[in-house]
Amino acid sequence: MAERSLVVKVTAGKDDPERCNQAFTVAAAAVASGVRVSLWLTGESAWFGLPGRAEEIPLPDASVDAVLAGQALHWFDLSRAIPEIARVLTPGGVLAALWNVDDDRIGWVATLAQISKGKSNVTLRRWRDGVARTRLERLTAAGSGLFGTLEAGEFGHGQRRTADSLVAAIATHSNLLVMTEPDRTRLLAQVRDFLGACPETAAGEFVLPMVTVVLRATRK
Fold first, then answer.
1. Which of 162, 161, 156 has its CA nearest to residue 214?
2. Are 64 and 36 in contact (CB under 8 A)?
3. pLDDT 10s digit of each residue in the chain, 220 long?
4. 127-131-137 Cα angle (round to 5)
5. Where are the domains of the chain?
6. CATH architecture observed for domain 50-218
7. What backbone torsions phi and psi does residue 189 show, to the nearest 5 degrees?
8. 10 Å Cβ neighbour count for 184?
9. Cα separations (Å) of 30 from 4, 25, 146, 193?
10. 60-98 core/surface letters (b: 16 or more CB in 10 A; e: else)
11. DSSP, res 64
12. What is the pTM of this model?
């Protein structure tokens, strides 16, 4: 089955924020289902996209009710980013950091993690065994005095994949991007060989079991 793709072109902006929000929701749902999405913001919808970075957010003080960081918080300079996020949040506003991790409670997912030497993605067991604690401690330290007690949550789901689309996704992960080209090519070939031979993944489309893990803090 050919990999599915979706192009979402958004033209409504601040004049019709509900329609713009619906477009973002469609795009996010498609991505969560394993669909490759191109999101185009045109006209007034471009108002919703601002150039910036976590350490320098181009928004006024106390101007937003929530800040979401998907697959990104571990790249931030937390000593600068967390005070900046606190600055733009209203009192009682929420910071939520989210990551998708592979559910290695499932046998073939655990084997995939072993073959890729943990470089394909963080797994649920690795998250529970230490990654969560480390990120929680770093976030707590950076947000001291600015946020209340952090909360953690886990939400299971799955992404529809093929062997080709999963290999392509793994190739974009940061751990692989910093590898030498021969090492990356060799590892991806091993992953592809495993997926082609594994009964759960060899017959075309399959569901990759995942868990979205969340760290949540409320602005004081």
1. 156
2. no
3. 456 677 877 776 666 766 776 777 777 667 666 777 887 877 776 666 676 788 999 999 999 999 988 888 888 899 999 999 999 999 999 999 999 999 999 999 999 999 987 777 789 999 999 999 999 999 999 999 999 999 999 999 999 999 999 998 888 777 777 788 899 899 999 999 999 999 999 999 999 999 999 999 999 9
4. 130
5. 50-218
6. 3-Layer(aba) Sandwich (3.40)
7. -65, -40
8. 17
9. 10, 8, 35, 27
10. eeeeeeebebeeebbebebeebbebbbebbeeebbbbbb
11. E
12. 0.77
CB proximity list for 78: less than 8 A, separation 6 or greater:
138, 139, 141, 142
N residues, the chain: 220
165/154 Cα distance (integer angstroms): 25
Task: State the number of CA atoms in the 13 A half-sphere of 19 facing the CB.
Answer: 12
What's the rounded Cα separation, in Å, for the pair 190 and 112? 10
Which pair of tokens denotes residue 168? 């392509």
Q: How far is Cα 91 from Cα 73, in angstroms, rounded to an integer?
A: 21
Structure tokens at 10: 């958004």
Three-state DSSP state, 15: coil
> Three-state SS for 77?
coil
Where do we find the tokens 């993690």? Answer: 113
Ramachandran region of residue 31, left (φ > 0), alpha (ψ -120 to 50) or beta? alpha
| Residue 61, C-beta contacts closer than 8 angstroms, at least 6 positions apart | 87, 88
Q: CB-based contacts of 11: which residues, under 8 Å, 6+ apart? A: 42, 43, 44, 45
Helices (H), 14-106: 17-32, 78-88
- How far from chain centre, in Å, is Cα 177? 17
